[in-house]
Task: inverse folding
């Protein structure tokens, strides 16, 4: 008799995630290679998709390594209340933009509800912080980068 423990197979969730990440990297690479827009100066439009592809390959390979080295750690139980606050914030962001509320108000909703989901109880303060961040981001995009984010009544005051 031997004291050797039987070989355990690969951790299935880590293996599946690793393979999916590698497949996604392949799709991103294929999409980047099919772009016909070129650049006359330095980096072209395929640079960032290739960087993302490299990151996905690294993540996929490390998931495969983890799958054969003991697997992923078992996750803790999810906090349903926190998930509902964050999902509600995302729904609020989508709804606000879809209904014409604009970027700043949408980001305010998302920031405040995400902070609440992470356990903060100062909803009014978080809404104020989210408002300021949303306004700064909007102004940077609109004035410096000349890119328009979704407009609402508030954003039209600053254009």
Result:
């Amino acid at each position: 008799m031997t004291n050797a423990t039987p070989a355990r197979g690969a951790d299935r969730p880590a293996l599946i995630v690793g393979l999916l990440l590698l497949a996604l990297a392949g799709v991103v690479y294929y999409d980047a290679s099919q772009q016909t827009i070129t650049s006359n100066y330095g980096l072209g439009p395929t640079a960032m998709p290739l960087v993302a592809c490299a990151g996905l390959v690294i993540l996929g390979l490390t998931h495969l390594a983890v799958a054969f080295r003991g697997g992923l750690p078992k996750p803790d139980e999810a906090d349903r209340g926190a998930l509902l606050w964050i999902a509600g914030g995302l729904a609020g962001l989508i709804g606000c933009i879809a209904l014409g509320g604009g970027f700043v108000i949408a980001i305010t909703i998302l920031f405040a509800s995400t902070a609440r989901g992470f356990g903060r109880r100062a909803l009014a303060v978080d809404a104020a912080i989210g408002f300021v961040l949303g306004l700064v981001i909007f102004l940077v995009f609109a004035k410096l980068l000349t890119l328009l984010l979704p407009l609402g009544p508030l954003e039209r005051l600053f254009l």
The CA atoms of residues 54 and 60 lie 10 Å apart.
